[in-house]
């Protein structure tokens, strides 16, 4: 294809997508709030821009065949901050894509759109939202907007409910929720190259024996995850205390995000837990 726009290109996940996406298009336009990016591909350009700036998104997305939208606050935060980057940012991307005739948006949604469901419930892609934070609520908004723009304008969207994207598995929760970086790249590549997607919601998980989600509807993409968190199970479980069934942080799909007060960083909460504070 001619042009792909990647938002959130300086982020932990967006940064891993730059090289694979550059191989799929004549031009990759990467954007984020960083001043610059190192290691640009020969066909990659970088533009510093705020997804909350409507004019900037309108200019960037002009001529794009697809947008891979990973640009947002990746954590719980005060509502006003989430409103700008996650709610308004998503609207600006969809509005610009529709105005310019972009074919498809691949969106970094999150399990936190469903975070208050108990882990004893295997969640599907067609169950009602049940967000755990303002952050999760922003993902619900963008998914519903994606559905509306598909129904109204035929703008395709693949919403990837990413669970726990990381390197090696770090904790017991990730034995079910892990998404390896290699499987993340495969999932995004398949979302870009699939001939037809319409509006789709897909769970971003690897081929885990303990996966708590039903991802059967991802098969049409050709997504076949290769990694399995069970490879880490013996080591992880040997050092994991018995779970407390009264602790929503252990019993809900959203993990610690199910317990933090609204507006308080879930990432910092997890860090304090890991440090024993």
Automatic annotation (TrEMBL):
UniProtKB keywords: NAD, Oxidoreductase
Keyword Oxidoreductase carried by entry: yes
GO molecular function, a single term: oxidoreductase activity
Domain of life of the organism encoding this protein: Bacteria
InterPro entries noted in UniProt: Epimerase_deHydtase, NAD(P)-bd_dom_sf
The NAD-dependent epimerase/dehydratase domain, residue ranges: 4-169
PANTHER family: 4-EPIMERASE, PUTATIVE (AFU_ORTHOLOGUE AFUA_7G00360)-RELATED, NUCLEOSIDE-DIPHOSPHATE-SUGAR EPIMERASE
UniProt record similarity statement: Belongs to the NAD(P)-dependent epimerase/dehydratase family.
Protein name: NAD(P)-dependent oxidoreductase
